[in-house]
């Protein structure tokens, strides 16, 4: 694998250049919330974050997205799609969030049906990851084969070491970008930094507070849809606010609806939806296959721990810990995993 | 259309005919404005489409017509909400959007050489009507044995596809049509009673036969034990499910039963398959 070195002092120059040549999407701080936005230069970026409040999945599956404009008069239909995706760089995404994007790929780039909106952005975007330098108390990426310095899914992975970034070149797309800015991406000193990165990864691996053990959990869920466990306290205390699904980097559910703008025109939009809402599965005739929070909570955790694996052979959770941090009633997927492991052991 | 990246874009269709089935059910016959779309559509009995009613959004509706009947599609739509309400106000000549076809289809290849016993309740004759007409088409009639249709509705006014039941299907070779309404009515000379008990009365033999059932959950619940009692095996009983859907492409998430999406892995399931899935539908 190729590697490069970027001086930290040159990062503003790199970001300014990227913002000029691409749509540059990077972490920004708005009031107290860290999220990803298109920025116009290094001055807008906020890199002193552990992880963003909102994941960068919106780069590829925006919270609201117009799929087309229509003009409909009753006896004529005209459909106009928005312009295709611009060349973009996603800078500063954490390894867990990048891994999450790889779990969305098989959903949107399906065998039978693709998705021009997702794929257009995906193909035109270079993902530059940024290794973690700290581990939060809610982090558990290691449980899902991830790690604070794991480059899976990134085109380039930056790891901060002293006054330098060690840059792993993971794809041809990444290499092309590094080569295009060769005055910033040098090769000098990469070997030593590679060793330093290994050290950092080892050090961070020892800093996880949360012990999460998935042993036996999938097998338990494979054979038991109706577990008494799902009648427990966690299901009862869920408020159905949907926060977990919005902050989750692997949640991909969406709604499609029309937004009429008058004079026979309108837009068809898709926006994030949440399986925690009763309307999500409510049919026009009144029947609801998941009528109470019990079924909805079960479905969410079954999706993360079983369904996504069954369907795509990929984990449905990357251990970013956002749902643990943001849940207003402290429903904690790591507790649920450990509880289920216990149920499996006692079965 | 394999790996179609533009799958979310509907094609314009024009309404060529509207039949009032009941006071709140209409059948719309539509043709694609671009005839090439129909040529390549390749819909199979049991599949569904997403209908675009611009300004209201989209809804999943089964294709009621068999592909053997011509270069058009029929959708039978009950007025239950905003979108279907707007649709019910539409007139011949007006347009809406269609994308599809989606989902799997009735196993008509496996059904070759067999008798087919259809059971429909309410307006849920719509999703199985495509297979009835496919099996009764000139082209494929010889592939199938006797075709029986047992259909029930609450009242005479609630019976859909009256001309199919009373005129078109009974006249065709080797068919039997049984129609019932829930409660007696003065002008009604036919059978009175619920679907499950009528099935018991007609007592189809399970030999060399498939039962294809569609109807409201309560009807299905009481009809399945009747077929079991008659000796039908779980893989001889085929049904089609309904779920809320938004994309119909296996992406928007909501129509899952366990790891399966009804929109791409269904809507057609055998009872044997359903018994291996979570009871969450």
TrEMBL record, chain A:
InterPro entries: 4Fe4S_Fe-S-bd, 4Fe4S_Fe_S_CS, Helical_ferredxn
Residue stretches in coiled coil: none
UniProt entry keywords in alphabetical sequence: Iron, Iron-sulfur, Metal-binding
Any one Gene Ontology molecular-function term assigned to this protein's record: iron-sulfur cluster binding
The organism's place on the tree of life at top rank: Bacteria
Residue ranges constituting the 4Fe-4S ferredoxin-type domain according to the UniProt record: 226-259, 305-339
Keyword Repressor part of the UniProt annotation: no
UniProt protein name: Anaerobic sulfite reductase subunit A
Taxonomic source organism: Pelotomaculum propionicicum
High-level lineage: Bacteria, Bacillati, Bacillota, Clostridia, Eubacteriales
TrEMBL record, chain B:
Cofactor field: [2Fe-2S] cluster
Pfam families: DHODB_Fe-S_bind, FAD_binding_6, NAD_binding_1
Any GO MF annotation of the entry: metal ion binding
Organism annotation: Pelotomaculum propionicicum
Domain FAD-binding FR-type, chain residue ranges per copy: 8-108
Keyword terms of this UniProt record: 2Fe-2S, Iron, Iron-sulfur, Metal-binding
Domain of life assignment: Bacteria
Coiled-coil regions listed: none
Record gene name: asrB_1
TM ranges: none
Single biological process term from Gene Ontology: pyrimidine nucleotide biosynthetic process
InterPro entries listed in its UniProt record: Cbr1-like_FAD-bd_dom (IPR008333), Cyt_c3_hydrogenase_gsu (IPR012165), Dihydroorotate_DH_Fe-S-bd (IPR019480), FAD-bd_FR_type (IPR017927), FNR_nucleotide-bd (IPR039261), OxRdtase_FAD/NAD-bd (IPR001433), PyrK_electron_transfer (IPR050353), Riboflavin_synthase-like_b-brl (IPR017938)
Protein name stated in the entry: Anaerobic sulfite reductase subunit B
Listed SUPFAM superfamilies: Ferredoxin reductase-like, C-terminal NADP-linked domain, Riboflavin synthase domain-like
Keyword Electron transport: no
Cofactor note: Binds 1 [2Fe-2S] cluster per subunit.
UniProt binding sites for [2Fe-2S] cluster: 247, 252, 255, 263
Keyword Cytoplasm attached: no
